[in-house]
Amino acid sequence: MEQRATGKKGTLFVVSGPSGSGKSTLCRAAAAQAGVHLSVSATTRPAGEGEVEGKDYYFLSDEDFLAEVQAGQFLEYARVFDYYYGTPIQPVREKLQEGQSVVLEIDIQGGEQVFEKYPEAVGVLILPPSFEEMARRLRERGRDDEETIQKRLHQAQAEVEQAQMNSRYQHTVVNDNLEQAIEVLTTLISPDKSD
Prior knowledge:
The chain is of the alpha/beta class. Helix content is 43%, strand content 22%. The longest helix is centred in the C-terminal third of the chain and has 20 residues, at 146-165. The protein starts with 11 loop residues before the first strand and ends in a 6-residue tail after the last helix. The model is unreliable at 1-6 (pLDDT under 50).
């Protein structure tokens, strides 16, 4: 159940972390438990097994994605490992104006773009317990070849260092125990119960 309009603007949460940190799983569970809106990103990568259009991602062709970029329809976007990813801006604006909090599950590069436009956004950094565990998770999901996994691991180390130096990520959640990590993130993004 999403929160209703209260006359005040909702809070924008930027939840970032490297591939394999578990941010998708955490964001879905925490947003559902907290009753806040989870933004759906667009991508040009093919749908993974079991992924649903409009629920997991909006799957676009390169041409359609770039047309949306030209039309200013993305809050943030980036090309990551041969594919584009971006956050459609209109649903985010609408939910915030309705007084609903919105969770953006995006990479650190995208997070930087959002903070430029919404400096009041609350940053949450999701980290795996170790890079070894992150590599195991990436291999287990079966979406990338070994070369891509190695690129992701290399980029993740640089991104994590950058994000940890960035004061805009006020909170860090280490995803070493899924249930505990969900509980921590749910608490962070839950609307103020006193309203």
